[in-house]
Structures
1.
Amino acid sequence: MSVRAIAARTGELLRAADARGLNAVLHWSEAHLEFEAARLEGQGPGPLAGMPIAIKDNIATLDLPTTCGSRILEGYVSPFEATAVRRLREAGALIAAKTNLDEFAMGSSTEHSAFGRVLHPMDPTRVPGGSSGGSGALVGAGVVPAALGSETGGSVRQPASFCGVVGVKPSYGRVSRYGLVAFGSSLDCISVFGQTVQDASRVLATISGHDPLDATSLARPPMAVAAPRADLRGLRIGLPREYFPADLDAGVRAGMERTIAVMRDLGATIVDVSLPHTQYAVPTYYIIAPAEASANLARYDGVRFGPTRPEGLPDVGALYRTTRGRGFGPEVRRRILIGTYVLSAGYYEAYYGKAQRMRARIADDFRQAFAAGVDLLFTPTTPTTAFKAGEKTEDPVQMYLADIFVCSVSLAGLPGLSIPVGRSEGLPVGGQLIAPYGEDERMLEVAGTLEGRLDATAEVR
Amino acid sequence: MTWETVIGLEVHVQLGTRSKMFCGCATSFGEDPNTNVCPVCLGLPGALPVPNGEAIRLGVRGALALECTVHPVSVFARKNYFYPDLPKGYQISQYDKPLATRGRLRIDSPERGQLEVGITRLHLEEDAGKSLHDRFPGLTAVDLNRAGVPLAEIVSEPDLRSPGEARAYLTTLKQLLVYAGVSDCSMEKGHLRVDANLSVRRVGAPAFGTKTEVKNVNSFANVERALESERARQIAVLESGGTVQQVTMLFDAATGEARPMRSKEQSHDYRYFPDPDLPPLVLRAEWVEDERRRLPELPEAKRARLVAQYGLPTYDAGVLSSEVALADFFEELVAAGSEPKAASNWVMGDVMTSYNQTGGFPVSAAVTGAVIGLVKDGTVSLQAAKKVYAELVTSGGTPREVAERLGLIQVRDESALERWVDAVMAASPGEVERYRNGETKLLGFLVGQVMKASQGKADPKGVQPVLLRRLSQ
């Protein structure tokens, strides 16, 4: 298929998605697809030749706006592009669209976008997860084979689980953050959705590798495209007991049991492990991420970019109050307030200092589990399948708990991925693999192996 | 004196790099507003800072020159506050883990002589931009060329006891930093900015008084003036039974007075925390030692060596080492054969004058040495040599050729000298008579007359024997 034909087909699919009100996409146009096709025709073929890829709208692109799902950046077009996007374009990928998200990636359902909620691709009454819900839904709906999302605390694995697709968060530092609009910088990772492990792995192989523009980028070569293993013999897979609570959703539990049985069949040794500080992950995350966000979002002050400032303001304080009060939605304002509070004089030690120490303990839990001879960990990605729209919007804490199984991995900087393992009452169930720091490829190889042995569309009970 | 003054200084020095602290933008001065900018220093969404290795190196050099302990691990932190010229809404600085701590600087106090001032810390940070309140009526313009320029903040202990000592500290610090190649310290370009903390207490009182901070004074002389004014104000408050409020003062150069800016109680909570975009700065011990070895000779050591090696007076050594270039020029002169004290006199005099006027050395050390040589071998007088040097500055040439052209070569030819001596004796018969009658102190007058008759060309060393011979005939 020629790139022209791919662009045209992508345009049809995007138009159809819009027509059914998926609202997964914030920016795309026929003209832009044609522009991309022309660019690729003039460019030699690359490892991702002609692969249409959607980009979460908090990742800077040159030719489409970058709004982060926020009024405060409405119409903003970045004068530079993210390193990951540049590498995709150079590898021959076609940048298809910019996808909807929870405002500034803060949320777990993509209901917090200033530009409307994203529908679940299989059930419009449900959420696709978040914050990368637009990318997850678009891949889940089969519009694109792969998309970039971003994770701060599970924002790709969780929607991947809900939407029945593969979602991979690499080790912190393996993919450059340059051009990813910062939320919680010590946690933020550009991450990847794929219809298959292979799709995700090809994209990761392209965008990973050292970037001199990001001081936290790891000095390691790009990842190899992971080849599935023939079996899992010799592999020890740990099941952290804290991730299998008694009240775990029955469908999710069945999905896990089914997958564990397949792992055993493939020769893996399954062991029980403990990550004792797991219960502190969500509270720790909700101190550290907002603290960093409170500084990262200070630049949206109305002075240099964003919508035109209102006339007749008496002073600069009024400019800040008006710009930020009108520009940020309630969830973003809530997190800025929390973050400002936990960093305040007199509270720093009690909150931020303590959270940093807890973060170190959570990371140490993982280190000890791996040091004891476990190669990978396996857990449910989410406590439930996709929940109903509006179900958790009135209760932020319930919303935060949707990330209970994905948060720890982010705090520890580890690679983690979610693969679809089956369906419960028609909704996808995701299983999570977690690898030691820097062992992203091991996780992808095993996921590739499982993918070939699991019927992701079959009911798990 | 019933009051003791206590002063501590915070100095921001621009590190002499070509590019900014966390991006590749130029640090060049005087460009059009907002031209030395990029996504990083504009704080655009998605841009990330990457530390400038040269800025770190220069910071370390400064710390070593100040005899600080350079820490193997230091941490960049975000200092959060809103201001239109602060693009990210935070400044990247260092807070609880600075680059270096506990150094010292020896200064010459105008009141107490040699003393050592403690250096609390030296840390790295980026500069903010500049708010321009006078460009557009009723509006504030923002120039971000300076945003992200690398700075070292150097904080002294409260060891200074007078505005004069504060000035001496600044002068010595500036000289040290220029020597070490840390900064040009150009005051006009704002490379060095001073915030001063001052309090007063009764002599002998154990605790410090309440301090005030005088911010952003633009010259060392004004620091001294501002502190004089603030000291007087605090003493007046206390002597009238009042208490000093902890405030920030703004110095008005026009009136020479400092006035309160804002109350410290209302000051910001900067909510410092480690910058997650920047891993801890780790410096290998060998690398730091290497930088220490690479430090040039610093002013104090140079002064001591000039005294020991060349037998110069302490005063001369101080003047010559005020700038490396002057001391180097002096040593070149000596190496080329000039006698040290003569070379020192020349450098402190005519050479320094032309250096200050031109910013360089219009006459090379080799040529200047040749001028000094003409004096030493009696070819020209010292006065004539100064004329020769001045001519070399304006028109160039070789010293001997210039001396000849200006007719400044001293005449030693016996018959020529005899002609001038005879003429003077003939014109002053009274003085000659009195000399011969024992008034020998008139010899000086007669030598002077001969010099005058020769229009300065006669060699004074040759004149005296001829005159004595003729007078005794």
2.
Amino acid sequence: MADEILPRNEDFGLAKSDQAKAPITDHESASFGKQLLGFWVTFRTMFKKVNTVQYPEVKEPTAERFHGRHQLNRHPDGLEKCIGCELCAWACPADAIYVEGADNKEGEQYSPGERYGKVYQINYLRCIFCGLCIEACPTRALTMTNEYELADSTRGKLIFEKDDLLGPLRAGMVPPPHPMYPNTDDGNYYRGEVTGSHPSQGVAIND
Amino acid sequence: MTNAELISQDPGWVIALKGLIIFAVCVFLTIMSVWGERRIVARMQQRSGPNRVGKFGLLQALVDGVKLALKEDLIPKSADRIVFVIAPIISTTACFMAFAVIPMTGPVNFFGQQTAMQLTDLSVGVLYILAVASFGVYGIVLAGWSSGSTYPLLGGLRSSAQVISYEVAMGLSLVAVFIYAGSMSTSEIVAAQQQWWYAVVLFPSFVIYSISMVGETNRAPFDLAEAEGELVGGFHTEYSSLKFALFFLSEYVNIIAVSALATTLFLGGYRALPGLGFTEQWLGGWFTLVWFFIKVLAFFFVFVWLRGTLPRLRYDQFMKFGWKVLIPFSLAWILVVASLRLLSQENAPRAVIFAFVFTVALLYLVGTSLFERHKEKIAKQAKIVNASEPNFPVPAIPNSRAEQLNG
């Protein structure tokens, strides 16, 4: 009976690999002279360049695709990309995102199309920065920045509201709410055919 | 005039002032050496170490001391209160006392008074240091016992067993120095090294002393008493605040003390390096202080270097090394040294001395080759023993593995 549940020899990998044999065979300890080489290693290291980053004063750039704080993006005319679909909240394994969608009304248009995210909260005490929300977002409204300095002193401050998360208004954008670009629908926005704001939408921000 | 005669003429105020200065220097050196050790070990690990408090982090140890002083001073309920408080005091006092007989300079002008920077000169100075050092063990034992908890007790026992064992080797390594210097007084031993340092003449003694002083001070790689993975903090696990600071202080003062003793006994003490004898007159003799501290700090660097390089020894291997290697070896070495000394004192002809050295060398070679052969024999026997049948129940070993086990 016992033989049946034993794995085959090949599965062990022991017979093939010399490395796996190593812990079983006797080791001849290195000669005394060789052991003294360790002192040379530490001595030499003293004169090497120190690896430490003097953090608060010196900040090394993160990896390009580092998962940092989230950002809610805008279309080139300033309208928000978020449509309040809650897919990010559903994707979130840590249940860190809370979204309430609402209807865009005539004269109070926040995003192209019917819906926009009225309430958008991310709880950074729960967030594990896995990026599943970014993968879930159908409009590329939610992305992650490289910002990692998120420590704070209270729990309340670590629940980021929509205002904290929205990307900045760049030159040529009009602060929402404002109507969509004339003679377009949301499809035009998603296909990237709207490249800036129109005077009829409102006063654009200058640099 | 010799140092001893100079010191014996000291008026009271000079003695008091010297005592104060020695104490202050010890405390200052401790603070600086804590900083130095952390910086050096950091560099050995390619880190930068403490660099926040003051220039280059120089005030780090001072600030740490203030932090320790401001912490809550806990005494465990099960602790023996009186002994618990006395233990760190014993430890600290003992290690400071060793400095009384260390000669730090040659004859100097001390505020208009001709003297030497040495508090007192006992004719049995080195024995006094050994006595005081073993007195310090009481601090460790009592701390471990009075804490009323398991880890400190084990740590204290380990630590005292270790210090006592290595003190034997240490004492034996010093015997050769006594034989050659013809004195146990520290200043006379320094004076006797005018021509050759004992580190050269008595090299084996120097090596034994260097090893046993690391064991004696409970430092890496012999820091079994504080093996974090096994015993938490060892004998001072239950200590906090200033009492812990005292143990911390005493550890570093101890390092400086054994380094100072090694300097005195083997590296010519306050004397200049060979060929630089003229510097001893600089600054009215005070330059010898610089030489002394250069040598002491060199020893300290070696302590740090050891810590940065070597992993901790296993306890049984450590004790085996002390009792089965260091002590027999130093006993044999003392026999050789004593015989050589006697031969040269009796003006024996060169041929006899050479014959003696040759015989010793021959005996050594025969002994080691016999030992090697014995070891090989044992290794061969060990290989024949079937490893697959231990006398306790074990799960079945798969075939391929069993083959490898048996060679």
